[in-house]
Amino acid sequence: MDANADFIHVIDEALDPAICADMVRRMRAAPGLAPGRVGGGVFPELKHSRDLRVSGDPAWRAEDQQMQQAVFKGLLGYLRAYPQALISPLMLQQPDAQGNLRRLQAEDFADMDDARLADLARTCLRPGAANLQWYRAGEGGYPYWHCELYPRDGSAETLHRHLLWTLYLNDDFAEGETEFLFQQRKITPRTGSLLIAPTAFTHTHRGNRPQGGDKFIATSWILFQSADKLYAT
């Protein structure tokens, strides 16, 4: 592994541009758009957007499935690049050829085919609800430096967020990058590209204001499975 890795993964053409364009078209006319929220509520000085939750909405079922499939494919690539994303927090064990439990090592991931890795990922992780976000040119954005972990939720659901993801649905604007503070890296939106990165303060980031055109994204998290599923006896 590259000792200088920044753990920010970008996959180009993760989602068909035609699907992206159709989602943008539908969102422009969608009922149910609401002011963008942060963990503590609606604060447009922190995040200025119009948002639409699509997971669980029958009208958006096909698009939600297409996005989640693209994200899951990207996740498998991420886990191959950074197997410690599962090994380090969970200390995973699997039976060997003799049926004895042994700790998984990073090297083991190279020998896993996609089906086995997918099963492992589904056992340990789960998808978050997808949210579409619309940032208007010259005024929309999420300029406040923030991370994705948030302890206010009494159920600790927000502390189960392990990785963040963003699908960029258009790129017909200037600026509007996702900017990471400590990595000193700006991710330029490209239609259909997928961004995956850790959720903790190490990857504090912001969404810069688009210029010359509106910006549309889909975003959510990849979360750990709940403890009762991970540690069921």
Would you give an account of this structure?
By secondary structure, the protein is α+β, with helices and mostly antiparallel strands. The chain has a single domain, classed as Jelly Rolls (Sandwich), CATH 2.60.120. It is 24% helix and 27% strand. It contains five helices and 16 strands. Strands 1, 2, 3, 6, 7, 9, 13 and 16 form an eight-stranded antiparallel beta sheet that branches. Strands 8-14-11-12 form a four-stranded antiparallel beta sheet, with no helix packed on it. The chain is globular and about 60 Å long.
Q: Count every helix, treating DSSP H or I runs of 4 or more residues as helices.
A: 5
The number of strands is: 16
Shape by Cα distribution: globular
> Structural class, from secondary structure content?
alpha+beta
Largest sheet properties = 8 strands, antiparallel
Q: What is the end-to-end distance?
A: 35 Å
Residue stretches low in confidence (pLDDT < 50, at least 5 long) are none
CATH architecture label name: Sandwich
Order of helices and strands: EHEEHHEEHEEEEEEEEEEEH
Total individual domains = 1
- Mean pLDDT comes to 94
As a percent range, the share of helical residues equals 10-25%
InterPro entries: Pro_4_hyd_alph_FE2OG_OXY (IPR044862)
Domain Prolyl 4-hydroxylase alpha subunit Fe(2+) 2OG dioxygenase: 133-222
Pfam family, one: 2OG-FeII_Oxy_3
Protein name: 2OG-Fe(II) oxygenase
List keywords for this structure.
globular, four-stranded antiparallel beta sheet, single chain, 233 residues, Jelly Rolls, 16 strands, 24% helix, eight-stranded antiparallel beta sheet, alpha+beta, 5 helices
